Amino acid sequence: MHRRIRLVPCIFMILLISIYKLFQEKCNEIGDKGVVEIKRKAAFNLFCQRRFDEWLEIHAEIKTGKRGYDLSMCRSFEKKAINELCCIERHDILLCLTDSQLAAHGLSHPFALKALISDVRPISAFCAGVSEVDGILYVAVSARKKIFLYKWLVDEFIKMHFEMSLAFFPDSVNYMVWCGPIISVAVQNEYYYMTVFPIKEDVVNVKKLFDVGSRTENPVIVGLSDYKQIAYCRDNFLFFQEYYGTVSPISEVKFSDAPLNIVYDAPYLLALLGNGKVEIRSVKPTTHIQTIQLNKAMYISTGLRGTVYVGSSSDVWLLDSRPQMRSNVEKLVNEKQFELAVQLAEKCNEIGDKGVVEIKRKAAFNLFCQRRFDEWLEIHAEIKT
């Protein structure tokens, strides 16, 4: 049985950014209300779009100051409907899927067009990964039931040799995620994965996992790079798999309902449910932390570490765990929830390395008292005491 951890209320402080009124003031000549939709983020920058008869790209910059944020608008970003955006901060570009082709724009206003993938169409989905070895950006696109691979060099997409063990997928790939060396996709309500890194000339083996379930509206795949794992949602369960296909020692996470989407902000999983709820659970241990009700929430995206953005048709909320982090660590230590306390402490600048070691000492003593001597010795070996 999972035990609910009582934390200092609340673990995520909610800051409502009422951007709808500002959007309307800036765009009142358009006339239509439209929908504010969170796309992707880049550091303090939050990219949103608002649907009108004419498509707009709206860039909201979160900054310090009296108002706390500023807005700028780009009315000529793309002429057709934007299906997906992805920020690649390391290469200072914004990848945009629109009109069945992939474009690369600059990450700064006016978001100038840099390059297009025009030799493969229609593109139904894409994902991107930056190599940890050489820092090169690789982009995979789905078209005609196949996957095509490109690398980004000198502001150009360079097509690469890429051959899969499957000649074709059974249908178009509409959802792709790149995490570590793995590309995971969803096709006809089935999950597949393939190991891409390191890049080789060999045929890439594509393996089928399982179906997305009967209660899941959309497939959901979540990368957990710190654990070197990928998680797949089936109905209201999230199942974990290590990068190279071995069964994960992490227990599956059960949510109260089938999620619309899930993001990972270590050590938390935040699931957006269909009724506007955001359900927050820790990964290890798999414990319910908190549930937040947000009016008609439809979108969720990660920001800087400790921050998550949630959007509705008119508002964007900032969920910020940073102000309460130290208090929550102290609360967890007092309750002897050392595993989660250590994970939080390692991400809290106020605690520092010495504070983390002290928490681990207390954790080791607690294990000794429970006669769990092997684990006690492991911690002391880790902190060299």
From TrEMBL:
<protein>
    <recommendedName>
        <fullName>CNH domain-containing protein</fullName>
    </recommendedName>
</protein>
<dbReference type="Pfam" id="PF00780">
    <property type="entry name" value="CNH"/>
</dbReference>
<dbReference type="GO" id="GO:0016020">
    <property type="term" value="C:membrane"/>
</dbReference>
<keyword id="KW-0812">Transmembrane</keyword>
<feature type="domain" description="CNH">
    <location>
        <begin position="35"/>
        <end position="307"/>
    </location>
</feature>
<keyword id="KW-0472">Membrane</keyword>
<feature type="transmembrane region" description="Helical">
    <location>
        <begin position="7"/>
        <end position="23"/>
    </location>
</feature>
<dbReference type="InterPro" id="IPR032914">
    <property type="entry name" value="Vam6/VPS39/TRAP1"/>
</dbReference>
<keyword id="KW-1133">Transmembrane helix</keyword>
<dbReference type="GO" id="GO:0006914">
    <property type="term" value="P:autophagy"/>
</dbReference>
<dbReference type="InterPro" id="IPR001180">
    <property type="entry name" value="CNH_dom"/>
</dbReference>
<dbReference type="GO" id="GO:0005737">
    <property type="term" value="C:cytoplasm"/>
</dbReference>
<dbReference type="GO" id="GO:0034058">
    <property type="term" value="P:endosomal vesicle fusion"/>
</dbReference>
